[in-house]
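FW: tagging you since you asked about this chain on Friday. Here's the raw sequence from the shared folder, copied in full. Didn't touch anything.
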Amino acid sequence: METNTSTQPGAIVRESYSARSQEYVDLFGSMTSTHPSDRALVSSWAATLTGPVLDAGCGPGQWTDFLAECGSAVSGIDLVPEFVERARLQYPSLLFDVGSFEALDAATDSLGGVLSWYTLIHHRPQDIQTPLAEFARVIRPGGGLLVGFFEGEVVGPFDHAATTGYRWPVAELSGELVAAGFEVIEAHTRTAVGARPHGAITARRQSTR
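HL: got it, structure written out here
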């Protein structure tokens, strides 16, 4: 039986963000929309890395450019063609491609790190191991992963402006990272009035698979 790819989770995410790409760029497409503590965390994390870095789910490229300014040899991928086109125009010196986290165009053990900043929030809990395993494949032993996500008391869905998102308790997502082959280094949470709770986890690729 033929599968209707437009109903697959990745296709839904791509189409939802494509339809609202300009709105997203206007609201979140520059570093001025980011929290100072997030910039400090990403900068300090980047300083620990050696080798190429991938911004997985780069959107219009603002974090990719930030990592480049931090000194990383970085490239970006995103499911949404409109974001990649915008990133290429805005940051012509950097490399951006349309791509999926489920099948990264990178050799095994080839990357020093992966930034996944709010880019796993639409993966269903039963599917989260697929991108995490792919991150573990491409990150060299000792390399770093930084995940930004919406934090919650239990794993569960919420109504995101684009399409269904999922909250994760730090302990639950940390367990998924460990199962994928990572050692959790540290976790951060932040709350603010009128905003969803934020979480971030830094992890290191373990030396054994």
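FW: Residues 9-19 form the longest helix (11 residues).
HL: agreed, and The chain has seven helices and nine strands.
FW: great, closing this out.
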